[in-house]
Structure formats: C-alpha cells, structure tokens
Specification:
The protein is mainly alpha-helical. The protein contains 21 helices and no strands. The radius of gyration is 28 Å and the shape is globular.
Length: about 550
C-alpha cells in the first residue's frame, strides 16, 4: 500500500515538474522572447509558402515545352538522338553535385528576397523570376538523377542558364546594396558557369523571347511612323523623322532575319546595339513635340527595348532623359488638373477636409522622386521613391475622382496615364487593379480559343495520335472554362471565388499542356509557340489574384 502511495507521489511530483517546465516554456515564448517566437513562426510560414509555390512551378516540367532551337529551327535534330556514352557518366555525376548546390543556393536567394520585399518594395519585381529559376533548378536536379542521357540533361542546363543569366542582370543594381543577396548571386553565377562548362555548352540567349520582342518593336515602329505622319505638320523635320524611323525598322528586321539564319551571339548583340544607338536620340526628338499618342507609342517600344537588354544579358540602362521628361510631364498634368478644378467643386467633395492635405502629400513625395531623378540615384532608390508616389496617388485619386467636372476627371485620367508611363519606364511591378485583370482574362480567353483551333487542325491530320480524343476534349474544355473565367472577372465576382475558379483553370492548362507536348508532327513548333504565350499569361494572372 505504501509502495503504491509512493508511486502516486512520484507521479504527482513528475506532473508538477512537467507543468513547471511547460509554464516556463510558455512564459519564455510569450514574454521573454516574443520577437524570436514570432520570427520562428514567420520563417515556418515563409518556408511553407515558398515550398508550395516551387512545387507548383516545377510540376511536370511546366513551362519547358520545347527549347528555343527546336521551336525556331524544327529541322535541326540537335544531339538528342546520340546514344549514351561511357564518358557521359562521369560528367553526369559532376552535374548532379553542382545542380544540387545550385538548387540549394537558389532556394536561399528566394528566402532572402521574400524577406526583403517587406522593407524594400522594388524586390517584389524580382521575386517571381527568382521562384521560376529555383523551380528550374529543381527540375535540373531531378532530371540529372533520373536519366543517363547527357543530351537531355544539357537541354535543361541550357534552359536554366537562360533564365538565371537574365535574373542575374536584373538583380545587379539591387545586389550592389545588399551584401547577403550579392553573395548568393555571386555563388549562383559561379555554379552556373560550372554547369555550362560541364555541359560543354556556352551561355544561352533566349532566342524565342528575343524574336517576340523584336517583332513587338517592329510593329510598334510601324504604328509610330503612322502617328508621325498623322500628328506632325508636313515639312522637312517630319520627313527626317520618318526616314530615321524606317532605318530603325530595317535594323530590327535585320536582327530578326539574323536569328533565323542562326547568326552567332556577337553579331546579334552588335545589331541590337546599332538599333539602340539610333533609338534613344530618335525618341528624344519625338518627345519634344509633346503628343500623347506618340508618347504612348514610344513607351511601348521602350518597354520591349528594356526587356531586350535583359535578354541580351547587357547591363540595365536607365534612360534618364526619358525619366526627366516623364517627371516633368506628370508635374504639368497635376498643375493642369488644379487649373481646371474650381475651389467651389473641391469644397463640395465628400472628403473636402482631406483634399488639401492629400494634395500637399502628393506634391511632397513627387518632389522627392524628382530630386532622385535629378541626383542620378540608383535604380532601386528610384523604384522605391516611385512606390511612395503611387501610394500617395491612390489617396489623391480616391478623394478627387468623384468631382463634379468632366474636365477635371479627364485631367485625372491624364495623371493616371503619366503614372503608368513612369511605372513602365522604371519596370516597377504594378499593384492589383481590376482593369488589368479584365484585360489579361480577355487575352487568356483569346489565346485558348486559338489553341483549341490549332489542336483540332493538328489532330485532323494526326488521327492515329494515342491521346487524340482526350486532347480534343481537354482543349475544348480549357477554352470553355477560360471564357467562363473571363465573364466572372467582368461581372465582378469576389476575389476568393475568382481564385478558386482560376485554380481549376490552371490545373486544366497543366493537363492540356502535357497532352500537346506529346505532339511529334510538324505542328509541334506552332503549338510550342502558343504554349509560350499562354503559360506566362496564366502565371501573371495568378500573381494578380494573389496581390
């Protein structure tokens, strides 16, 4: 009996000790180390979010349908049919080690950028690209483990190299002011060089996207020349501008032809630099005319020009003259608004008591941005300064947009357009707005209809395709669901409903993608080009809905 009581007493003491320890742990987490506990929880949340995104991006090699050479030069058989060699195994083992290191380091870079986005807004524009690179690194590590065909691994190495080199250039300005990110970028550059050397390859240009941006510039120049003839007075000055514009268009056409002729990288970069040397002074002359229609066309071409610099792996160049011009234009637009807005109408506003303070704040952050432009501040500083303008503009527009004056509302629209031009010039990520989502949904709807037509054309010729019935059914359903999603956005469905609907659409695209990637007929390059348009649009829509 006494032994039983001793046992109970020991158990009671043990329970008390456990309770005491748990109390200490609880108190420590609640009072002694609140920041540490919060940091640990935040790290776990971050890791879970990043892991889910990487799993989705690297699922079934999503987005890697075909390579540039296959899509642009379908007659080129490449090295895929070469049988495995004994010497390949040593190379594959080396690639496995480096791929694993690249995968781990790319994940570290994503973590650093993910944490930095809350204190430095400009980082958000790099995060999606960093996630894609990290997903591609996972794909490479998996491919290197799963196959003994070096030619297949080389394809994935080159694809990763294309993505990483563009992101590395994009991060150049930001990394110079963040030692932790710079160290990651330097290590990844070194690992990428090792991968390329082991693959017996060389740094890759994204030919597919280069072609697309060149065609975009060519089309933009065509429209710009039409605007010049329509908007500017007849005379020698206009004739000279038309001549210079045509010369630029011929240079872009020459670059496109050179890609298809498989010119070497040195020649392609030289052709691009020739275009750029002519483009900047040409655009500067046109801006002096202060024609909104021409200005918008210049901005569209400049956006493609900026993307081409990244694709050619050249240091990013900020067109300071353009920034000064756009900044001055925004000042004039704001002044124009107040010149067209009587004090009586401002007093009648619902939040009239906030109008003056909001206007003063908008002017203040804008003056700070103008100072940064004139002081030749770094790209990251300009992007952060612009984000403050954008936040202030949201308040400004919210208060004044209900003003009872059509002239004042038109002036507000001019400010919005100028803000958009500045945002595009700085390549700053746009915040969510419904009009952007509506435009993108319409684009996806249009692309899926074209794809559905192309799939039917392909399978009308290839009636022996194993998955013919399934592919036809999935492509048609994909187009139907894209149309339904487009209507849901236009009709103003709530964000949670849209996310659920889009997740189903994205899953459907995954199934369609895997089926069309099995095509082995002459239709494959065209289907690949369609896929290369749909996937970025789908990823962009997912990003918009998550903002």
């Amino acid at each position: 009996m006494s032994g039983c009581m001793e046992t109970q007493e020991l158990l009671q003491r043990f329970k008390m000790k456990i309770l005491f320890v748990l109390t200490l742990i609880f108190c420590s987490s609640m009072f002694l180390l609140p920041n540490q506990a919060e940091a640990q929880r935040s790290d776990r949340d971050r890791d879970r979010i990043i892991e889910n995104m990487l799993k989705e991006l690297s699922r079934d090699d999503m987005g890697t349908f075909g390579n540039d050479r296959e899509l642009l030069f379908p007659d080129n058989s490449g090295t895929n049919n070469r049988p495995p060699q004994k010497s390949d195994q040593n190379t594959i083992r080396e690639i496995r080690k480096v791929a694993q290191d690249f995968n781990n380091e790319s994940r570290q870079l994503v973590n650093k950028l993910y944490d930095a986005q809350y204190s430095e807004r400009s980082v958000k524009s790099f995060l999606n690209e960093a996630l894609q690179v990290s997903a591609s690194a996972r794909i490479l590590e998996r491919k290197a483990q799963d196959t003994d065909r070096l030619s297949e691994i080389i394809q994935v190495v080159e694809s990763l190299d294309r993505e990483w080199r563009v992101l590395s250039k994009q991060l150049h300005n930001y990394a110079s002011s963040n030692s932790s990110v710079k160290n990651s970028v330097d290590r990844l550059n070194s690992l990428d060089d090792k991968l390329i050397r082991l693959a017996g390859s060389r740094p890759q240009l994204n030919l597919k996207t280069i072609i697309r941006e060149c065609h975009s510039i060519e089309y933009g120049l065509d429209k710009l020349l039409e605007d010049i003839r329509y908007e500017l007075p007849n005379g020698q000055a206009r004739n000279d501008l038309v001549y210079d514009g045509n010369q630029l268009k011929y240079e872009v056409s020459d670059a496109i032809d050179s890609v298809y002729d498989q010119a070497n990288e040195k020649k392609l970069v030289a052709l691009y630099k020739n275009f750029q040397d002519g483009w900047y002074p040409f655009a500067s002359k046109l801006r002096n005319y202060n024609k909104p229609r021409i200005d918008r066309r210049i901005q569209d071409i400049q956006n493609s020009n900026t993307r081409l610099r990244e694709l050619f792996l050249l240091p990013q160049k900020i067109d300071r003259q353009q920034l000064i011009y756009l900044t001055d234009k925004l000042v004039k637009d704001v002044d124009y608004f107040f010149a067209r807005t009587p004090l009586k109408l401002i007093i009648e506003l619902r939040d009239s008591d906030l109008a003056l303070a909001t206007a003063n704040e908008f002017y203040g952050v804008f003056e700070n941005f103008a100072d940064n432009v004139n002081d030749n501040s770094k790209f990251s500083e300009l992007a952060d300064a612009f984000n403050y303008i954008e936040e202030s503009w949201q308040d400004f527009n919210r208060i004044f947009k209900s003003i009872n004056s059509s002239n004042a509302r038109i002036a507000l629209q001019k400010i919005e357009r100028s803000m958009h031009s500045l945002r595009s010039s700085l390549q700053v990520e746009n915040k969510y707005d419904q009009s952007e989502a509506i435009d993108l949904a319409a684009q996806i709807d249009n692309l899926t209809n074209h794809l559905n037509f192309d799939v039917k054309t392909w399978l009308d010729k290839d009636r022996n395709f194993t998955y013919r019935a399934e592919t036809l059914r999935e492509a048609e359903q994909f187009a139907r669901e894209a149309e339904q999603f487009d209507r849901a956005i236009v009709n103003g469905k709530s964000s949670p409903q849209l996310q659920t609907q889009f997740n189903d659409l994205y899953s459907r695209w995954g199934r369609v993608y895997r089926l069309i990637s099995k095509c082995r007929t002459a239709h494959r390059p065209h289907l690949g080009r369609q896929a290369s348009k749909i996937t970025p649009a789908m990823v962009q829509m997912r990003t918009i809905l998550r903002k």
